[in-house]
Structure formats: C-alpha cells, structure tokens
C-alpha cells in the first residue's frame, strides 16, 4: 500500500512538472526508474514510462485544449510523421544493453539542457513571424491572447520521425526534443509549443505503448503503471493551470535546469 501511495505522489510531481514545460514527464520518470530498478531491462523501463507519458499527455492535452492553445492541425501532421518511428523505437529497445541505455538517456538530457541554456531566449510575444515559413497560424486562446506565427512544415515533418523513434526507444515521450524544436527551429510561441507538444505526445506515446502491449512487455510493469498514471492524470491538470502564471522564459529555464540535473545524476556512475 505504501509503495502504491508513494508512486501516486511521484506521478503527481512528474505529471505537474512535465505538463508545465510540455515534456510529458518521461524525461524525469525514466531516470527515476533507472535508479529504483538498477537491474531491470531497458524495454521494461521504457514501456512503463511510455504508458505513463501517454496518460500524462492525454490529461494535459485536455487541460490545454480548454485553454485553446493547441495547434491541432500541426499536431496531427507531426504525429503522423512520428508514429512509424515510435513503433520502430518500441521494437528496438530490447536490443539495447542496459549500460548503453543509461548513457544515451543521460547524454541526451545534458545536450538538450546545454542547448537551451546557451541559446538566446526565444521570442515569446503573442505575435511571432517567420519569413521562411510556409504555413501561417493564428490562435486565440481562452484568455483572449492572439498568437500569430508561421513555420516551415517540411522541417517539422522531417524531424518528427526521428523524434518519434528516440522518444519511444528511450521511453521519454519526446517532449524534451519537440518543445525546443517547435520554439527554436519552427518559431512557435512557447505556450503554443508546450500545448501542441503535449497533443503530439499523447498520440505518439499511445502508438509506442500499444506496441509494447502487443509484445507483452507492458504487462510486467502494470503494478507501477497504475499508481503512476493516477498521479500524472491529476498532476497534468495542475501543471497546465500553473502554465498561466509563468512566462515563456521561465518555462524554458525550468526545462533546461531539470534536464541538466537529471542528466548529470543519470551519468553519475560513468563520470
């Protein structure tokens, strides 16, 4: 019973923070599972995390949908490009040795953190333009703020397959990659990027989770998935509400700090 309650609380924290920064929480959950289960197989850790990411992203997408900050058209296009990669990634995890799995996770988190810390703050005003953009978007959220921006969909589609593969093979959901891509490469306002990333996460994580379910891996982690999922569903609602109180730079800095700390802790034994 204590284990169940502790994992609900863990899911609550992961869900709130993951939704706040649009990353789905998988980047936090996988390292925690690595520490808790040092002898577990990578495919088991990835399947548990990906299932929890799905419930987190689904709950967060509902909350962000109420705030009217999701670019659904872009989300569907990028998800369609990422889905094949997600399925392939779920099937590939079992072939990765545990040590290599840990090193990849830690290194990826640190690289993403350094990129965000060194990169100048993105433009986060409600109006963002991009001369090279082929697709123009206008979104009015529930508070009346109007976001205008444009982006090149070919770049996003090309990157989404790789993001889908990495997110699924590592069980992190892909938000830690998608948010920086949407903000820095495709010129999305930060609040639209975090919301749209969550919508993409829900669809991509579902495909990866379904693959793990079909292979039978998912059933082995069901005892952890249930309490974690209960926590993240509630936490996602909290995180989406908190996003209204934080500006774009604060969200990006929070993402970078979390990535750096978790990445260093994951690589602690290899440094």
Describe the structure.
The chain is mainly alpha-helical and 271 residues long. The protein has one domain. A hairpin with a 5-residue loop joins strand 1 and strand 2. The longest helix is centred in the first third of the chain and has 26 residues. It starts with a helix and ends in a 5-residue tail after the last helix. About 4% of the residues have low confidence.
- Please, how many helices? 10
Low-confidence blocks of residues: 123-132
Counting DSSP E segments of at least 2 residues, the number of strands comes to 2
Mean pLDDT: 82
- What is the count of distinct domains? 1
Level of helix content? over 70%
Query: How far is the N terminus from the C terminus?
Result: 37 Å
Shape: globular
Order of helices and strands: HHHHHEEHHHHH
Strand order of the largest sheet: 1-2
Major sheet size, sense and barrel closure: 2 strands, antiparallel
Proportion of beta-strand residues: under 5%
Radius of gyration: 17 Å
What is the multimeric organization of the chains shown?
single chain
Going by helix content, strand content and strand pairing, the class is mainly alpha
């Amino acid at each position: 019973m204590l284990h169940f309650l502790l994992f609900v609380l863990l899911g609550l924290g992961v869900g709130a923070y993951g939704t706040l920064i649009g990353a789905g929480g998988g980047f936090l959950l996988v390292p925690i599972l690595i520490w808790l289960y040092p002898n577990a197989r990578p495919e088991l850790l990835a399947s548990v995390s990906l299932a929890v990411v799905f419930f987190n992203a689904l709950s967060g997408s509902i909350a962000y949908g109420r705030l009217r900050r999701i670019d659904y058209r872009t989300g569907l296009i990028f998800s369609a490009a990422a889905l094949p990669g997600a399925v392939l990634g779920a099937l590939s995890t079992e072939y990765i040795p545990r040590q290599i799995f840990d090193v990849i996770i830690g290194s990826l988190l640190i690289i993403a953190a350094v990129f965000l810390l060194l990169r100048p703050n993105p433009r986060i005003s409600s109006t963002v333009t991009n001369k090279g953009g082929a697709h123009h978007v206008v979104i009015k959220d529930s508070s009346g703020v109007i976001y205008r921006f444009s982006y090149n969909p070919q770049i996003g589609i090309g990157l989404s397959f790789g993001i889908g593969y990495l997110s699924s093979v590592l069980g992190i959901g892909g938000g830690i990659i998608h948010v920086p891509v949407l903000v820095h490469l495709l010129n999305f306002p930060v609040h639209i990027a975090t919301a749209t990333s969550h919508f993409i996460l829900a669809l991509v994580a579902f495909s990866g989770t379904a693959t793990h379910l079909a292979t039978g891996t998912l059933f082995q982690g069901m005892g952890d998935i249930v309490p974690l999922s209960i926590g993240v569903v509630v936490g996602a609602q909290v995180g989406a509400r908190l996003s209204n109180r934080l500006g774009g730079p604060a969200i990006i800095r929070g993402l970078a700090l979390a990535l750096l700390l978790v990445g260093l802790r994951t690589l602690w034994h290899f440094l």
